[in-house]
Design goal:
This protein is of the alpha/beta class. The chain is built from 8 helices and 8 strands. The strands form 2 sheets. It has a 5-stranded parallel beta sheet, sandwiched between helices. It has a 3-stranded antiparallel beta sheet with strand order 1-3-2. The termini are far apart.
Length: 266
């Protein structure tokens, strides 16, 4: 049984595409018909694609990896933020910082700067500064919080990217493609689906449409997270044995490299 029914998608207005003159021919397989100059999306295909994406996202969440949600458009910002928080995943809804994925180490430095400022306020260092310095640091902290506060727990590159409106978030999609990070996206009739690994053809301008699709996907992510918890409980010492083996294998590889270099020197 599908996670989202045809009737639910129809009621949410997920079938409304863009004007015919604005369409992208690559979206032809997902278009059902044209009415009054507007393309109508095939909701049966939308429902099938939602199930496909949900299954993949569930497996990613089950493995304990992170999914980054991205949408800076007005209609989707709040919905994306709420849904991402509900499943404990990082999100970007203010502005996509260029190079966030391809130059991830620099972004992490900016995030660490926030934690440094927080430590200063706790250990009393902040109180020793002048009023001007305090004001500058407070403003800097507020700016960092606005742009990067939602990814503070993202300590490594995400395993997947979920995007609403691939045209608006084309930089994020391009960075993910460059790093071979799978992209999940709600794609409208005016967009290019070739850069997306898991295409969900639907109206990306209607808040209800975005909400119902995200709801189904987040339910799948929650299921994956619950299964991940169960597996950790069932496994010996919460998976400690597996981690020890992995570390041991890494150490052996490093030792082999060191020995090989020593042999070359001799």
């Amino acid at each position: 049984m599908s996670r989202v029914s045809f009737e639910q998608l129809l009621e949410a207005g997920s079938h409304f595409g863009h004007l015919k003159r604005k369409w992208n021919p690559l979206m032809a397989p997902y278009i059902f018909m044209e009415r009054n100059g507007i393309h109508i999306i095939d909701l049966y295909k939308t429902a099938a694609k939602i199930d496909e994406a949900a299954a993949a996202l569930k497996q990613i969440a089950k493995s304990g990896r992170k999914i980054l949600f991205v949408s800076t458009k007005k209609q989707a910002k709040q919905v994306v933020a709420d849904k991402a928080v509900s499943v404990g995943m990082p999100y970007v809804t203010e502005r996509w910082p260029g190079g966030m994925l391809t130059n991830f180490t620099t972004v992490r430095k900016a995030v660490k700067k926030m934690t440094t400022i927080d430590k200063m306020s706790k250990d009393g260092t902040f109180d020793q500064l002048s009023k001007r310095e305090k004001l500058q640091i407070t403003r800097q902290r507020a700016k960092l919080e606005k742009n990067l506060g939602s990814i503070i727990d993202l300590t490594r590159l995400p395993s997947a990217l979920f995007v609403v409106d691939v045209m608006k978030e084309h930089i994020a999609v391009a960075e993910a493609n460059r790093l071979s990070i799978p992209v999940f996206a709600i794609v409208d009739t005016n967009s290019d689906p070739s850069s997306v690994d898991f295409v969900i053809p639907a109206n990306d301008d209607a808040t209800k449409s975005i909400e119902i699709i995200l709801g189904a996907l987040c339910d799948a992510i929650n299921e994956g997270l619950e299964e991940c918890k169960i597996e950790r409980i069932d496994s010996p010492a919460g998976g400690t044995a597996e981690r020890v083996l992995v570390r041991r294998e890494r150490r052996i590889k490093i030792e082999k490299k060191i020995l090989a270099k020593d042999d070359e020197k001799l």
